[in-house]
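Schema walk-through. Below, the input block comes first and the output block second. Nothing else is stored per chain. Lengths vary across the set, and this one has 332 residues.
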Amino acid sequence: MKRQIGIIGYGNIGKCLHRRLTDLGYSPNWIIYSRQDVKNQYLIPGTSLVFLAIPSSGNGEVARDYILDAIYAGAKVITCEKAALAYQYVFLQPHMNDIKYSAAVGGGTRMLSFLRERNALGCIEEVNFVLNGTLNYIFDLIAKEKFSLQDACSFAVQNGYAEPGATDPLSIINGEISDVAKKVCIILNTEYTKNNSTTPQMIEQALTLSKADLEQLLLPGQMGRMIISINHHEVLRNRFLFGPNPSSVDYVKHFQFPVGDYIAFGGFLRKKTDYIDSSWFPTGINNAIQIIERHEHVSSSDRYVLSGPGAGAEPTVSAMITDMLEFIEEEK
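--- output ---
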């Protein structure tokens, strides 16, 4: 039986998704182009799969309602929208078997699947992330290509990498910080604890830059790398006692919150530090995850790195289509 497929949202990602699905022989049966369209259109009987491709905005209530309405109508949902998973997870949690969201964090890398597979082994002691390809791209252009901040931000906007609505460099960078805050909460919600009390607002408030902070990031020798880490509390305790450990002086802005048996922390690194190996840092628009595992009765640790494009429509759509193929495979 032919699948009934719908797309909600028709910006850059929705258009790319429409084209790629059609090329693969999965032409959508209906599309909601904007919120002015009839909202219940996607409740067409027989709809089996809904792609949610709207921009992340507000506290995710709009996206949450789209997701839940589709699920209650019997459809599976594939989303790249972040706010619902970050802010509204308590409502979505009972339905997570009907939702795939690998495109919400890490673009085309599917790093959440990678983290979930490694986490299942129970040996992870530390995970480090670069979660925003746009910030990585901007500060790479500044550091390696000697671009001005204005030119680097303009290139990011022209290439469709920046969050919608931002214009000047400070608002562009703070818009991406908001994106990072949502992604961190998605990781904590879905991969670490069912009772995460850390909110995107808490992280965003800690990381948002002032003009003076931005000037510090642009000083010679600054890395400008937004690095997020989630470490088991025993790892940090041992570092504080026996070795190098993260300190606020290493960051222009930073956050640190307990999450169950783990500590989540991160911010803009000023320079290379002894406690984070920088060899895995990605270039350009790439995101990356570094997982450090330690096995019982083994003194050394194993390191796994996954990196790939984290910004732009094509990588995002690639992850969404892979999610679709997983749903199809699960139905067999």
